[in-house]
Design brief:
2 copies of one chain form a homodimer.
Chain A: E1 4-7, E2 17-22, E3 45-60, H1 68-80, E4 83-91, H2 101-116, E5 123-128, H3 138-150, H4 156-162, E6 171-179, E7 182-190, E8 204-209, H5 215-228, E9 233-234, E10 244-249, H6 263-285, E11 293-301, H7 304-316, H8 318-325, H9 331-340, E12 351-356, E13 359-365, E14 368-369, H10 374-381, E15 385-391, E16 397-404, H11 408-415
Chain lengths: 419, 419
């Protein structure tokens, strides 16, 4: 499976993708006339531009409340036959639940199309931030021509920074691999640290590749991999209104286009999994207020859905998350969360182990507690990356879910997000 | 509907019920020989004893991990044909996920039956506390004869105190009403402040009445009222393994037994609703770390299930709960939680108001934000009892869900529960 290599470059790692990002004052107003246009304030708007027309696939939030940018992006891709050339994305305002939301999202596309001289329906638009505040269009009018001017094959980090909201670190990951005898590249950027929950698409994620893949196969790969990566991530159990995961393929690697589930498709999916899994781990680690990355592996499940449901149920439990923050080997809470997972298996066969780089410890066998050393448990749980291993002993399938502990700082950050 | 009057007496308000409670050291060991048997430590074991054989109905957790006491209680009631005389209940240890759990629960019943000279299958047993620790039987052996000795028609508060775990206040409520021309009484006690979640039975709840009701009608009333009270309560979204709600009827009021859905049945259900609703509100107010009681009323829904699902979705959202703690009118989070509720309605018709004793404010109409005064919102949200009013504008049905804010103290309490 190790037919890929981690590389730098994020969304610019693949051939044919330029990017840029800058601060335009979506939340705090336009930069002062006397300031340099590129303020030292955090970037809040980004652009991606492909040298050629790309195939595009997307997965979106399942929330009934959908951000206007999602509505517009879907319409655009329907009109363009799944082709895209550019992405425009802002942070600081979600452009959701506003009467003029679609109008503003369309205007973002129009401005971008004009600056790049492409059809507006080939623009993917996304927004993230506060819900229900009117999106100010002036900063965007100001920014778009500058973004177009600044586009560069090294602009990935500028762009990755621009989509951050309460994120404390930018999230980028890229790999190279060989498909059809050609070197291909696939890289992505992501944002999100709260309001991340299983069963929605994801937070904002953009992935680019130069591997030639047909629209159908692109969508298929994305949907499959989202299910076992972003959809297995939970920070707080809330589902955002704006979550979007876009995958865009330029085809510039020169490989024979992947149009069936052949070997190249498996290789491509594996590369996509590596990038999305690593972005998922970055999102979990940077969960709002998180001090620990928690990975829950559910193995020996009868099927994939059961494994996913159980692993997510544990990762999502607030009581379990608090126990992890408190470094307390309260395995009863783990078993409790396994027990209320809505799936069919025999609770009396369930094993639980806790693990970290400090070792591994059995805490439950056949649904009942076993004696264990509290000192060893403490040693394991004081690490900042914890693994919870659930064995259902009812089959052969495994799944992994990622999350974090629940801390004072989560409450602090979210008690005062708007201001 | 006001055919009832609130009275004192909790589980001893109804004719024929004695209760007692004491400290026996379930968690911290037997009281020292030199201490008085009734230590000044918090009571941790309680007994209820009925003068006559009672009809009993129960609702239990839907968690696959079920506490041994639940398994034993169900078996007992099956054997006794739904008849019960006594309840024995401890806090400090859930007697769950232990290899010898059933054995210990059976022993609790046996000891109680012996002390009260009744059949063991007429004993209801319950435990609450840490999961996965072996239940020490010595303190219980010590306590049961003393509890039997101490039984009194005024013992309700001793018992209500004994079932508390992280609860900061005892929870009791009782009403009197007239059914079949006779004065009847119905009262209950409850415990719970974390791990309370919709779709499970409840936390530990015991309700007694002297109203004569057939076993079938008793179960019917309990199931209906649990659905719209305890099951509409969420503190943290976790579902406990030990949740039990028992309703026991002595029939000593002398009314004609309620055996059909007649007027008396409606009156009885209303009394039960009053008691269970008020206990639910007490549980929500005492949510772990809570500083605010949050009530969410979903109205104009097409059906009851939709109304319940939407109201619970809001009450459960961690982001919304943090916003309430921060007194932030972040209505976007409310609409977001409405949007991910798994029910069928038109999000574009949804209205949201926030309210408290300081007034009422429209924040969202037809799924979009409306201008509102931030000062007014602040004034409303700084109160300690907040109402969130959701109008679906898609029907005639309403439901209420209860919860609390998410605070630093929730994290603190649950980061270190076992010790």
């Amino acid at each position: 499976m190790e037919n890929f290599e981690t590389i730098n470059g994020g969304i610019c790692a693949a051939k044919g993708f330029k990017a840029s990002g800058l601060y335009c004052g979506i939340k705090h107003g336009l930069p002062d006339g006397n300031e340099s246009p590129i303020s030292n304030k955090k970037n809040d708007i980004a652009m991606i531009f492909a040298d050629v027309e790309c195939n595009a696939a997307g997965v979106y939030t399942s929330n009934k409340v959908k951000g206007a940018p999602i509505v517009v992006t879907k319409k655009n891709l329907a009109k363009s036959g799944g082709k895209a050339r550019a992405v425009i994305v802002n942070s600081g305002n979600a452009n959701t639940c506003n009467a003029d939301g679609e109008e503003k999202a369309l205007e973002m596309c129009r401005l971008t199309a004009e600056a790049l001289n492409i059809p507006a329906e080939q623009v993917i638009v996304a927004s993230t931030g506060v819900i229900g505040l009117t999106l100010p269009i002036e900063p965007i009018k100001y920014a778009v021509p500058l973004l177009a001017e600044k586009l560069s094959y090294e602009g990935n980090t500028e762009a990755a920074t621009a989509i951050m909201t309460t994120d404390t670190v930018k999230k980028e990951y890229a790999v190279k691999f060989v498909a059809g005898g050609k070197e291909c590249h696939l890289g992505g950027m992501a944002k999100g640290s709260g309001m991340i929950h299983p069963n929605m698409a994801t937070t904002l994620n953009f992935i680019t590749t130069d591997c030639a893949v047909s629209p159908e196969m692109l969508q298929k790969a994305l949907s499959e991999i989202v299910k076992i990566t972003y959809n297995c991530l939970s920070v707080d159990g809330d589902q955002s209104t704006n979550d979007t995961c876009m995958l865009i393929a330029s085809g510039l690697a020169g490989n024979t286009e992947i149009t069936t589930e052949n070997d190249d498709f498996q290789i491509f999916k594996n590369a996509l999994y590596q990038v999305m899994k690593n972005l998922t781990i970055m999102l979990a680690k940077d969960g709002e207020g998180a001090t620990k990355l928690i990975t829950c592996v559910c193995s020996s499940a009868p099927d994939l859905d059961t494994a996913i449901i159980v692993a997510k149920s544990v990762i999502r439990s607030p009581l379990f998350k608090c126990a992890m923050f408190g470094e307390d080997a309260n395995w009863g809470r783990i078993l409790c969360a396994v027990g209320y997972a809505e799936a069919d298996f025999d609770i009396n066969k369930v094993d639980v182990d806790i693990a970290s780089r400090s070792g591994k410890l059995a805490v439950c066998r056949n649904g009942a507690g076993v004696d264990f050393s509290e000192e060893k448990a403490e040693e394991i749980l004081k690490e900042d990356e914890i693994e919870i291993l659930i064995g259902l002993n009812s089959g052969e399938v495994s799944a992994t879910a990622w999350g974090c502990d629940l801390t004072y700082d989560y409450v602090k950050i979210n008690g005062d997000y708007r201001s």
